[in-house]
Amino acid sequence: MLNIHIRRNSDGKRVVYCDDSEWDATREYMWAEGNYACDCNRSIFFSNATGNDDDCTDCGSDGFSVRICDEAGNEVYVDDNWPSIDGDLAHLQIERDKQ
Ligand SMILES: [Zn+2]
């Protein structure tokens, strides 16, 4: 089983999507470069995890970031743009300054 943490970068909201599969090279390719690297698919995972119907956004690569952990909680994959805690705080600060 995999826990897929998905972050919506527009507001920093995070959800966890549980995927009933094992991590392997195919999965890594799908999340890093394949269909699941695209915002359109990630937005569907995100909306399903929040209990909403499939809410599909346009294709893109900046809308959502993912961090994937295996059953033991070990990180198996993380996007380059997954923010550090500091990064999140900086993001919130920027949002506040805009208002
Ligand atoms: Zn797409």
Q: Characteristics of this structure?
A:
alpha+beta, 33% helix, 99 residues, globular, 3 helices
Topology:
Layout (H helix, E strand, L loop, with lengths): L1 E7 L4 E7 L5 H8 L6 H11 L14 E6 L5 E4 L6 H14 L1
Antiparallel strand pairs: 1-2, 1-3, 3-4
The chain binds zinc ion.
Description of the structure:
The protein is an alpha+beta fold and 99 residues long. The chain is 33% helix and 24% strand. It has three helices and four strands. The chain has a four-stranded antiparallel sheet, covered by helices on one side. Strand 3 and strand 4 form a beta hairpin. The longest helix has 14 residues. The termini are far apart. The model has no long low-confidence stretch (mean pLDDT 87). The structure holds zinc ion.
Beta-strand percent range: 15-25%
Runs in which pLDDT lies below 50 for 5 or more consecutive residues are none
Mean pLDDT, rounded to whole units?
Answer: 87
Instruction: Give every kind of bound small molecule, once each.
Output: zinc ion
Protein structure class: alpha+beta
Our count of helices gives 3
Could you describe the largest sheet, including whether it forms a barrel?
A: 4 strands, antiparallel
Radius of gyration equals: 14 Å
Q: List how many beta strands DSSP finds.
A: 4
Q: Give, in order, the helices and strands.
A: EEHHEEH
Helix content: 25-40%
Measured between the Cα atoms of the first and last residue, the distance is 41 Å
Order of strands, main sheet, comes to 2-1-3-4
Q: What is the molecular shape?
A: globular
